[in-house]
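seq:
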Amino acid sequence: MNFQGAYTAIVTPFNADGSIDFGKFKELIEIQIAGSIDGIVPVGTTGESPTLLPDEHSEVVKKAVEYVGGRIKVVAGAGANSTVEAIELTKRAIGDGVDGTLQVTPYYNKPTQEGLYRHFSAVADQGGKVMLYNVPGRSGVPIEAETVARLARHEKIVSIKEAAGSVERVSLLKNICDIEVISGDDTLALPMMMVGAVGVVSVASNILPAVISKLVHSMLDGELVKAQKLHSEYYKFFKTLFLETNPIGIKAAMSYAGMINEVYRLPMCELSVEHSKILKKVMMEIGIINDPVYNR
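struct:
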């Protein structure tokens, strides 16, 4: 297996002035490692990559590899809607020593399936392992199953993060090609793994790394009842994190738990007062708030 297990789409913490707080970033990585997470995914959507300058993007990746120090895997977000840019980000990430890169479907320009095939193939030709990222809700274009099957023939394209909300698609992909399928949604991690997915790239694990790790590894070990119990216990929290656009919910939750300051870069902004009350209530119900140990 390449990227089996529980991976955290880690947030990028900011100082009050909007600069990157690398000291806090290091602390968050240590929390992930202590919580038995298998790897982190820096500078993805959850890491607010659209608002980072190119040099900042690369610096976050470099620091992530440095702070991890080989203890867990690092799969760096390196996608773009320009193939030239995606290749440049990928080359830098490979040079920094990542275990792989996450390549999102090019957004806004809405390429054809042939364009997607050529784009991802060109990125994979750079030499690093690739996890495709199918998220049509953000990119506007899906990676059709037939395109995934073509891409899976490339020796470096080993996984796909599925965030289109379809459990059935896991079965379809496993039926037509040989590729690791990773859930891109915390709420669907359990059902997707029941039909063949091998892990999750999680948002909730920023604050509950041990919970997500236990859920995923319970499934991998065939302990379905244990995994179902965790899923049921935390399902409401998983859902509540997405009352507003990710990563607003998770950064707000982490701030309520004292882990980071709730600072974003525009156009992202603070969670609304109404949704803040709902999120805090859910966090109190499941015991996250006021618990000094975030690796429950």
